[in-house]
Amino acid sequence: MAGALALAGCRVRLWNRDGGRLHAVRQSGCIRLQGAVQGAGVVECCTEDLGIAIRGAALIFVVTTADAHEVLAEQLAPLVEDGQFVLLNPGRTCGAMAVRSVLDRLCPDKDVVVGEAQSLVFACRAEGATVRIIGAKDFVPVAACPGRDTARLLAAVQPLFPSFHAAETVLHTGFENIGAIFHPAIVLFNAAAIERGQSFYFYQDMTPRIARFLSALDEERIAA
Prior knowledge:
By secondary structure, this protein is α/β, with parallel strands linked by helices. It has helices at 2-7, 23-28, 50-54, 69-76, 95-106, 150-157, 170-175, 179-189, 191-196, 208-223, and strands at residues 13-15, 30-35, 39-42, 45-47, 59-62, 85-88, 113-117, 122-127, 130-136, 140-144, 164-166.
């Protein structure tokens, strides 16, 4: 996300709580994209200081695992500014609702729009300062929490990612996210390989049996 935004000409500040994860990008000064998107995006700064990262920023893109959403919201609460947009990529299941709840509790007077994408725009793998983009999605639903802010959010982010389209509510983006079906099942079927430390490509090393199981599991989700 950072590389694509920088490649599009945006001023990008990249934050990570672990400074070691930023070392390669600091050294190169840019993020190199290969595969479905190609080019090098120059990053303005890499920092472990969240305040520096978001100060004066128009858009705050959160690209973390779901278990970090509430913790990050608590860190953002004293730092966010009126008029900023916080977009979770993705929100997983009710991520935007969780972040909205934290901000409403800790900084209720700040005008901050919170929303979530149904999925990450890119299927990708990062190696140092290089990201291999396996594919870019052409339709990604986005919604704000509350829903009355969706139009504002979309107006801010769609020019940067045209694949973003308005969803009716965050219930639609949350329950339509296949991650809750897709990820646990693949981990379960590959538990022995993971314990052995054997490397496998999560999205590519799929057998017909696992694919059939995922299909059946997802049919249950849709039926419910």
